[in-house]
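INFO worker-7 received task bundle
INFO bundle size: 2
INFO processing item 0
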Amino acid sequence: MKTTFLSSLFLIGCLFTQLQVNAQKKGEMNTFPISQNKSATPILISADEAKVVSIAAELYAGDVKNITDQQPQIIHKLPEAASELIIAGTIGKNALIDQLIADKKIDVSAIDGKWESWSQQVLTKPFPGVKKALIIVGSDRRATAYGILELSHKMGVSAWEWWADVQPAKRKEISLDIETKTYGSPSVKYRGLFLNDEDWGLQPWAAKTFEPETGDIGPKTYAKIFELMLRLRANTVWPAMHGCTKAFYTIEGNAQTANDYAIVVGTSHCEPMLCNINAEWDHNSMGEWRYDNNAETIRDLFEARTKATSNFESIYTIGMRGEHDSPMNAKDLTKEDQIKLLEKVIADQRAIMQKETGKEPESLPQAFIPYKEVLDYYQNGLKVPEDVTLMWTDDNYGYIRQLSTPEEQKRPGGGGIYYHASYWGRPHDYLWLSSTNPMLIWEEMFKAYQFNCHDMWILNCGDIKPLEYNIELFMDMAWDIDRFAGTMDVQLHMEDWLSFLFGAEKAPEMTKLMMDYYHLCFMRRPEFMAWSQTEPTTKPGATELNQILYSDELTMRLDAWEALSSQVEKLKAEIPMGMQDAFYELVYYPVTGASLMNQKWLYHYKNELAARQGRASAKEFADRSKAAYEQIKSETDYFNNRLQNGKWKQMMSMSPRNLPVFSKPSYALPATDGEAGLGLALEGYEMEANKQIENNYADVLPVLNAYLKDSAFVDVFLKGEGEVAWKAEPKQDWIRLSADHGKLTAADGEQEQRLWVSIDWNLVPQGENTIEPPLGHDYQLIPPAYKVNGAIEFSSKDTTITIGVSAYNPKFKELEDFEGFVEGNGYVSINAENASSRTVGEGAEWELFGGLGYSGSVVVALPFNAKPVTNPAEIKAQSPMLAYDFYTFNAGETDVRIQAVPTHPFYEGASVRCAVAIDDAEPVIIDFKTVGRSSEWKQNVLKNAAVKSTKQTIKEPGKHQLKVWMVDPGVMLDQILIDLGGWKGSYAFPAETRKK
């Protein structure tokens, strides 16, 4: 009986414990008070914890104080009594946590021994005197810190609270719904930032504004950077390393600050063994930076740095490059000898690691970065130890050069990515604004993850500002890649981010604004708008944007940017006062700055054309360009000197490196006799329209097509000075004008007017010529038998100008139910996403990626590991195919142009190919692959587009089908142009010619 009773008590005790554990099942929600009744819940951490845990607790307590004015106590011993208590600790570093584990009140099996993983749950009566406790348990020091700061995030505190002045809403009380949940481990082990090209922002701001006592980027600045990284759950930094900045390890306190914040320190591709060669190598006392004749001195530097950092978490970049991002100084050696020398460098570095740390090199994090010439060495046989992470790079413009082969993916060291969202170098810098499309970041990093790049992601973030969103996206992807299965997830992420910062009401509108901003930046970055290049630096050039055809693509781009400017101004007026500074930094300045840079240069180009055509508006365009330049200056001055009372003084430069694109453009004025006159400029013509000559019209608009329902423009403009009243009279009742009269004056906005000419297709005759073809116009591409000609007479007090209007209005039975694309003015234009049909191949298919490309969506051959198909017969039988139905009114040889996003092959020796054919022709393979820094590659990255073409023959007018097959997986198709000889050149392909 006694035994039974004791056994029962034991069983009851076990059952109670088990019930308590079971009550905290994953997913269960418990409300827990953070601050109530003018009192904040204390947080208990052990004195034995790493410094980062106390830092996180202090940040959290400060966040609660900022929101509620109540400061939580940070305590180190269990109180005798507490209604609520937060207990945060690392397994093995907090006796209370360890006791809860031993008593089986919490289950840590899901996190124990894992990398950066933590759990949270609410327990009732976990200890005597404690009624309720929120338990945060970390597998390591960073995990515990992340767990504490997750509470701040749940309270509405942004990671950018300090760095972008995002103030959380004030509240009297805070209660959080705590889900019993395990976080981590992260998708990518090492996730971090490379502070680079800091010369025009971060360094002068730190040296002169934030940390003048150091006069550089010192421990005070790094503490703020590391706080941001903790809140973003980033764990790795490559410190700033340009010549303007002292080497990280030479400034007292930097290394210890990194360790305090649990930030792992690594270095870039040209900084071996944590050494900043730019700043630390003294030629006078140390000789040449050359390993074949000065190895002992170089090893001394490596040994000293490794010894000094042996107690810190570090990632050793192995190998060796030259100084200042240059090739290794061994040009007089053969390539084979250079490779052997580099292998010796790596062997010596690993021996130094073992000697100075007392650990086997295989146990130490190391990165080998095959960047620029080092990639060439690797591709030609350089041996890299299997335990070293192969860290692949993009081409500096967002396109990853190479990824791990299936064999390389098996290496114990794994793979990583060094990725640029900011860059200094040829063909042109982009250091000023955030202009890398988040969808491109997603596509490239998502792809890299599929190739086993799970070990290290580093983002070159320049000066941090204004790359805030791209940094957030990059780090959130690295933390949990499963959240980002498609492009829509990026848009949802952005909307959630903006909603968190500025409220749910405005977030959808802001998201569309920012997506439109990044789309326009993708088509051409604001820093590239002068059509100049650098290294060597060239003067501003002529724009590729066509002003005289295709509805004037330059003005369409200008209108789009001005619309974004108006939208962001409207939003700014609606943002509450407490959010204004954050909105300025995160949304207003980048959108407005990019818009103004476009306005500055696009009005410059409009000024040039207007001056050639004799338009009085040339001066107004010049004035608008100047005004845009002046507003960039004033906005940047506000950012630096008035925003947050000068907190960001020296942070924002409107002209990094003083490249020509940042200058005030030159301007032209038209030659004039001063008398007011009427001028016309027609779509399709570079110069002013001619006056009437012997009742024939030398100037004719592009042919308008009944199957496209298109239109064309005429600009009515003032010449000289004064006023001109004008009117326009269509000579046929089927011609429609957007305006038929007006007055031109010298006032801004009244010097010219654009008229749109369209056709009432219900009235226009069909199938015959009613007027003789105008002089001087090539009708070869439009069969005259189906064209109707008309005219518009423009007149003023002393001027009459007649222009021709041609309408192509046949009646083809086979087009009655046709739903494809139709030839217009000698070409067929198609957005690749709009295939008439698709077929699935063997293990591959075409899928849609939204938010990329000029058209706004691209089609991608997936999966990434699909097998390339190159044999024409196998292509037709096995490859996924896109089919595009189109109709031509002409026949003969055509030029099929395919525009793709300019990605690179996955591996050495691979390509980026598709195959095309019209009708039953054999597939012709086209390859978008570029080599090195060729002229073709430069143009591709400046435009974010790669265009390849092939000749095809259309045997007779009528219905046809363009077929596009996958050859290599990963190729991303954007736009297609079938040119029958009518395309006159443009930056983007003309608008789609889909039958209407």
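INFO item 0 finished
INFO processing item 1
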Amino acid sequence: MKIHHLSPEEALDSLGSSMNGLADAAIEGRLHEFGFNRIEESKKTSALLLFAQEFLHFFALILWLAAGLAFFAESRQPGEGMATLGYAVLGVIAINGCFSFWQRHQAEQAIAALQKLLPHQVKVIRDGELSLVFADELVPGDLLVLQEGDNVPADCRLLEAFNLRVNNATITGESLPKGRDAQVSDVEDISQSRNILLAGTSVVAGEGKALVFATGMHTEFGKIAHTLKTTVKGQSPLQLQISRLSRFVALLALLLGVVFFFIGQIIGLTFWENFMFAIGIIVANVPEGLLPTVTLSLAMATQRMAKRNALIRNLPSVETLGSTTVICTDKTGTLTQNRMAVKQLFLDNQYWQPEQLGSDSLQHHTAFLANAALCHSLKHVEGKGLLGDPMEVALVSMAHEQGMRIDYPKIGEVPFDTDRKRLSTIHNTPQGKMLFCKGALEMVLPLCRHIVMHGNVEPLGDAGRQQLVNALKTLADQGLRVLAFAYRPLSDPVEAEPEQALIFSGLVGLEDPPRPEVADAIAQCHIAGIKVIMITGDHPHTAVAIARQIDLVKTENPKVITGDRLKKLTGSQLQVALDAPEIIFARVGADQKMLIVDALQRKKHVVAVTGDGVNDAPALKKADIGIAMGKAGTDVAKEAADMILLDDNFASIVAAIEEGRAVFDNIRKFLTYILSSNIPELIPYLAFVLCKIPLPLTIIQILAVDLGTDMLPALGLGVEKPDASAMNKAPRSYKETLIDWRLLARAYGFLGLLEALAAMAAFFFVLHRGGWDYGEILSNHHPLYLQATTACLTAIIMMQIANVFICKQRQRGLLATSILDNKLILSGIALEIALILTIVYTPWGNALFGTAPIDIKVWLFTLPFVLGMLLLEEFRKWLVRRFTLFPVLVKPLKLRKRLLSRH
């Protein structure tokens, strides 16, 4: 038999213990057999290995290869600037590796948070004596002494209990304190047994003695920890995209290198000339600035989200939010205000608003109001009022508003638990001893024989009982949590079973009102194609009623699945059920969230899940984006989550999703911008080798673009604000990639070619003005060559200045875009201009970058190319809008107006 099915004496005997506790001689043997009472940590990878891993992922390997090839090329042909390129690439690798390692180190602390919840020292009876021992030295068979305020250090079976109540929220998610006693229990689930205390919970009232039967990883607490540390979180969508992008970049660079190696063979170059040519092509096609730009863009997005009450714990989660297709959300505190208030009363067979109770009716409902005014676990804090359970705060506040302020001494209690679903307290009153009972109607009503009607106590017949049941349904259908109140005078001495022949005094409907901004947030989710699923422990009627108030449910018969039904569903049945357009999970335990998350992920959804308790942690870690509550959340939930909601508000999730969507679009913007400059960097090198002309652009000048002038404008594109239409379209498909043929065609085949044309034209313009003839050899230090290569570099930077405004919008025209709203882009352009002027017109800039001053005619020569690129891109965008954009946007915009007009 399980220990909670045994009597106290049988439980002690089963563990070889007694009411005097274990003998000291038995402790060491049990400690060796069962181990220390600790939450075991996973075998940790050494910090050194973790640090090394940040330099060995695929894109980092590409950069290592590029640096190695650069150094090899320098060894074969010194003085070409390849060593400078190699050192620059190594710097990029170092910066990204260190930053990523720091982020990763901050993100993995969940098991440590679990350990902190367990107390350090506990009171134990051993060899008949009370002593303090360290909690990790507890063993099965130990006898604990627990009092109000103590944390429970291990799973134990109560042997004695005096008005004992515990808070199980960290394990079961239940917010109300539960009564516990030493009586034999017949329930099957040990966590619901009235004689069991679980590790990680806390005693909020009373005292008792308890027998330890499970320690460490064998406790229910330990099982949650085991689930948490064995739950493997897959790569985020952005991490997968970066992996694909890395493979694409590597394949493209290698392919181009091989192709041009054979072109060199065809035109008669030697093997080593061909090999160096191929290395140059490969290195030129690796975007060295990509990783820094992605990392900094994500980091700045986290700052914007923090201002919208969403704290991101690891960078890739920023973009994951934007990919979200389903949000599984709690109700209490997230969709609602977590601020209980008495909304409606049922007294004298009629419905009342609390404010309708006046002095005339007060005398008829004295017992009812006294029951409400008796608080059991509230504390009055100066300046903050009553603090404690929101339900009790609401009841006491209602009684105080009616002038009922009492403090009857409590002399006894029949505690609340999940089986009884009611709480009875016994008090000394001016009228003598009195029992006050409140709880679920179905548990209180059978105990009642009379009812208060207009101040008189009358018999309660079948018709009256049915009327109360109907009233319960009416109140629940309004989304109210319903409590039944009853009382009875007691004789002296108090009988053994005082909960009988009660007098029914009334029903209370309590409301936890929805947050006012949630309805609009739900409407925004509908427009954005995001499905919202409520998962709550509340009654199905209450859940559906709240869902209707926030427009989460609009049909007559939404699919409602209770926790009991969920237990009976197979994985495939659950997946099919999740296809319902409106679905709510009610009376669901937090441990069942993981089943729902897993089923949604098998359906290829990107799932965001909210949670606050220890038992939510596995689901938070399993989800694509785990969202912990900042106010109500436990440390464990916060450590397991990817995002912490600072205000516990659902609307903040939707705001964060909007920011996340912008991240993906912004990464594509700066990818287009960065890749565009690869072509004007590549073509000069090709022309140098194939056409036997002076090298139009040196390696150090390429670095001046990739890691200098391009960086800040690219970062500016990475922090663009969400577009107005970002939440008017469905989530992007999981098949959609960062780089597709359209982006490549635009970056390489259109914008890049235009920039290359301008760069080569400027180069030849200067050479032609200087009297150069084709085939003439110019040294690297010849004044004409220095001016010509400076003109090429200047043209690329000028074209990139125009390109940053082009890339701000993929489809909207320049005139329809606010070009002055991004201070970082404007700062980047100012920096670009300052850098190119420094490179061109200062002696040290000339010496470092191999440049020479150019006159105003070169700048004017390049200007038509800049204007031409802007005009051609405007024409391209017009064609795109004309044939694709208009039909796509009209329908979502109309839907948005229709939904928001209802609020």
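INFO item 1 finished
INFO post-check item 1: The longest helix spans residues 856-900.
INFO post-check item 1: The chain is about 50% helix and 15% strand.
INFO worker-7 idle
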